[in-house]
Write a structure and sequence with these properties.
This protein is 78% helix and 0% strand. By secondary structure, it is mainly alpha-helical. Keywords: Signal.
């Protein structure tokens, strides 16, 4: 009886030991599985963070290859457009002619979004918004005195002065846009150049007609 009890005890001890080892292995396996899940989660989070930090391609992006002409077009057209908006703002309380006022609104509506687009391009291209271009002057830009003279006028005198200055300003923008059409490499930038040539050439014709009747 003592021998049977001893053998039974040893068997039970062995079964217990094996069961304990099985549980330990299972636990280790679970740890490894969880560890793998944790690493996977960390990797996914890192990927999401990387995607969030990268500039998203949207309506204002200019995907594809670009060249120096594209960069120069954006860098020069931004301040050129900004001055047009400054001229347009002077019309508030000074312009008298309804057609001039309507044209001012059209300039503001078109050129401010274009400025934002070009800034977005330069950011995406890793280029500064402005850069020295040496002898590359921006055609049609008004001098400080031109802007002061415009601000000093009212009524019909403002309308005439505004039309004269904006014709020269638009002619300069059209010339810059035509350079981009000829030398640019980025399709999105060239599309904007097409828009500038089309819309501002039409506005020049309109401004000339306004001058003729004032």
């Amino acid at each position: 009886m003592r021998a049977f009890t001893s053998r039974t005890t040893r068997k039970l001890a062995l079964v217990g030991a094996l069961a304990g080892a099985g549980l330990l292995l299972t636990a280790c396996g679970s740890d490894d599985g969880m560890s793998g899940m944790d690493h996977g989660g960390t990797s996914a989070t890192s990927s999401a963070t990387a995607s969030a930090s990268a500039p998203a391609a949207g309506a204002d992006s200019a995907p594809g290859a670009f060249n120096d002409a594209d960069v120069m077009f954006a860098q020069m057209m931004i301040p050129h457009h900004e001055q047009a908006l400054e001229m347009a703002k002077l019309a508030d309380g000074r312009a008298e002619d309804p057609e001039v006022k309507k044209l001012v609104a059209a300039i503001e509506q078109a050129q401010d979004p274009e400025i934002q687009k070009m800034k977005s391009w330069l950011k995406g291209w890793g280029k500064p918004e402005s850069a020295g271009h040496g002898g590359h002057a921006m055609a049609g830009m008004m001098s400080d005195q031109d802007m002061k003279d415009l601000a000093a006028t009212r009524g019909k005198a403002f309308d005439r002065k505004f039309a004269e200055l904006m014709i020269a300003h638009h002619d300069g923008a059209v010339a810059m846009a035509k350079d981009e059409q000829k030398s640019g490499g980025n399709a999105t930038a060239k599309k904007l150049a097409d828009d500038v040539v089309r819309t501002q050439s039409a506005e020049v014709d309109q401004l000339k007609k306004i001058l003729d009747r004032l």
